[in-house]
Amino acid sequence: MIEIEKMGKPAVPIVSGRFELDAIASARAFAMPDLQFVLVPRIYRNLAIDECISQTEAAIDDLIGILTAEIDEAREAPQITTTERFEGDDRYDAVQRMNDDFILRDWGDAMPLYPPTQEAVDALIEGTNLPADHLVCDMPPGFGLATVGKIAINSAMAGAKPEQMPVIIAGVKALSEIGDQGGKSLLMSTSPHAPMLVVNGPIAKEIGLNPKSALGPGRDNQVNITIGRAFSLCLRNIGYWYPGHMDMDTIGTTRKFVHCVAENEEMSPWEPFHVNQGFKAEESAISVFITDGELDVQDQGNVTAEGLLKTIAYGSTFGTRSLGERHTAERLIFMPPDVARPVGAQGFTKRGAREFLHHNANHSLGKMIQFMPLEGEARVAANWKWLESHTEQERLNMTVPLLESADRFYILVIGADRAKTLVMPSGPSPATVGIDQYMG
Amino acid sequence: MHLLEVLNPVATQRGVLTAMTTTPRPASLDNKTVGLLWSGTHGGDVALKRAGEMIQERFQNVSVNFYTGGNYPAPPPIVKQAGEECDVVIGATAD
User: Fold this and answer.
1) Which of A146, A153, A379 sits opposite B40 (nearest CB)?
2) pTM to 2 decimals?
3) Which residues in chain A have their CB less than 8 angstroms from residue B41's CB?
4) Which is higher by pLDDT, B72 or A77?
């Protein structure tokens, strides 16, 4: 709609009730803060036809009004102060008051925040070679200006250390390089899409990132959690990924407490992932994936490479698929050493393992789409329209590859002992950014 | 008493710096071409078509064009076509 307005033509979107704040936030993010919209009570997709008609009829006066009347009151952008002050009986009390205020404004993640004092932020900036006013990128989905200073403030709130700053900065940059506009549409989706950060290269060990049981809580994952938390606070306060505004999850996911892990390069039989992405092994880099779920794929006794990979191939087939012109779904596979090493030892290159997975990860097309009405659905691309002439049973009997190609399987060796692989639906393709360029 | 001063973590948005105003509105939709831009979800097409019908009932000599690219958001060429061919456009988003 904003693109239409930019062409000089009046435009009005019809917006479902829960998305009112989203519409306002999006209008501001996409540079037309005064764009007006018509609100209807419920989301159309799950309504009967007569309900679609009746709630539209009830909104027609508003719609015509917006198309034919000038806006009488502009929406002002909130003013952003430079500093905030809190008085308390003592420092602890003042920090408590800061936390109460920040959480009320939704600037935090509901857990206690470290106070981002000028001293704390200055110390973090010392961890990079860039000045505070250096612009790293416009951070999606709300496209806030991600300067080194703002990244440092949010990192300070997470309790980050100076040596972690180059990783956090590179992570923010990597998100902005994903797909179309940094994966903006997925971040704003009603599905639980969330970033997952993976670090490769020497810096992982230097700063203490855990490459083994890397996703849980506790002492061993303190660095993993802190960097992930810094990144997620940046996403919130720089990317404007605020729940109910530009994060519109239906239920949500704990993966939005973003995690950062290291690849277990020492126990991998293959080249590190960042080498696949064009970096040298001795360089450090961070990759950002957008994930949409996770499944523990257990192997209970296979010792052959084929058996281990077939188990993962089958385990990868959960979920649904779209019928767009291109099938861009991917799978991010965290493969523990107890799977990767026998697979590698029995002659599979990483590329070969990905090809094998693709060859064996097949599923019933009907099962993957059976709950999706096809007739009249514009999101069924022209190359899939032929399915409309088949019965549901015929569609169930059609077996198709899970993904479009082997390139859409990503294998990273992560984990402790035991053959239990973590498979995550993911996509669009990850972005990888070098960390060394940001080192202090 | 302790005074704690901290830095604000919120960034300025690019869209705020480059903000544009909306297009001037016509006084009436008489003799106008109304575009209906569908994102492809069930029900959104029903809503847009009903809105188009009601505008035709209330105004004189209104043409209605229906657009969809089958994707969400609508692909740029379809959006451009709607903007070029119509005087006003109605869309269904977050639908």
Assistant:
1) A379
2) 0.93
3) 44-45, 379
4) A77
Packing angle, helices B44-58 and A60-68, rounded to 10? 70
Q: Are A194 and A255 in contact (CB under 8 A)?
A: yes
3-state secondary structure of B6: strand
B27 SS3 class:
coil
CB of A410 closer than 8 Å to CB of A290: no
Nearest CA in chain A to B52: A60
Number of CB atoms found within 10 A of residue A353's CB:
25
Q: How far is B84 from chain A (nearest CA, A)?
A: 8
Judged by CB atoms closer than 8 Å, whether chains meet at B2 and A93 is answered as: yes
Question: Which pLDDT does position A50 carry in this prediction?
Answer: 92
CB contact under 8 A, A150 and B9: yes
ipTM above 0.85 for this complex: yes
pLDDT classification of B55: cutoffs 50, 70, 90: very high
Q: Which residue of B has its CA nearest to A380?
A: B70
Q: Determine, for residues B22 and A29 on separate chains, whether the beta-carbon distance falls below 8 Å.
A: no
Contact A14 B95 (CB under 8 A): yes
Nearest CA to CA, how far is B7 from chain A (Å)?
4
- Give the C-alpha separation, A418 to A17, whole Å: 47
Backbone angles phi, psi at A421, to 5 degrees: -95, 145
Put residue A375 in one of left, alpha, beta given phi > 0 → left and psi -120 to 50 → alpha: beta
pLDDT digit string, tens, across residues A31-84: 888 889 999 999 888 888 999 999 999 999 999 999 998 877 778 888 999 999
Q: How many Cα atoms sit within 13 Å of A289 on the Cβ side?
A: 31
pLDDT recorded at residue B34: 96
Q: Which residues of A11-38 are buried (b: 16+ CB within 10 A; e: fewer)?
A: bbbbbbeebeebbbbbbbbbbbbbbbbb
Question: Which pLDDT score is estimated for A209?
Answer: 98
With a cut of 70, which residues of chain A have pLDDT below it? 370-371, 373, 376-378
